[in-house]
Write the structure tokens for this entry.
Amino acid sequence: MNLVKFSLKKFSSFLNSNPRKIKRITNISLLVLGIVEMIRQLDYEKKVLLIRKLVPWVILCEQWPVRMTWFLQIILDDWQNDYHVSWKDINLWEFYNIRVKPRYNDVELTHVPEPLRLRYQRLFPLDSDKDVFEKMMEQNIGKYNRDCCITVGDIGILGQRENDKLISYSINLNPALIEVLTEIPQLNLQLKSILSPISDFRKCDGSGPLM
């Protein structure tokens, strides 16, 4: 419990000013600590390291659920395409700037039906202040020499349960949010599969690319 309180104090400057939100983050962190302590497969040192990463992970998932769900969705996509290994040692700040931020900011989503696009745009108010998120990421999560540095490999895969992965303790994820963000890349893949044969045909007969 002292480790959780110490970690929460360490990240206090990044916490939402809403007392109910702070209480929820504290309660989730304490619950997660209790779960970790019961796992016999992890030795003491691994548990301490895991908890030091879990507290900021809980804060990130609770205060910026849309951004963090994008992390999980992109990592899952990479894993399904055998592309996950190439990113596992990259910290979340770097991964965010390279892979997540472009997806998150694509509010137009021209390749998806309007109802889904509107559902996605309505999710934006769920995330807290962007500047606070990026500051926390850059100053703490993205520093390889910090014990709270989180890499892509630390997260794990959505739908799998591994004792030393953060996703296994993400009890505050919103299923409805995951559903919306899962639909977007699926539709993108469907669109590519439809357009690919047409594009190949255009190249073969010399009519040029699709406009």
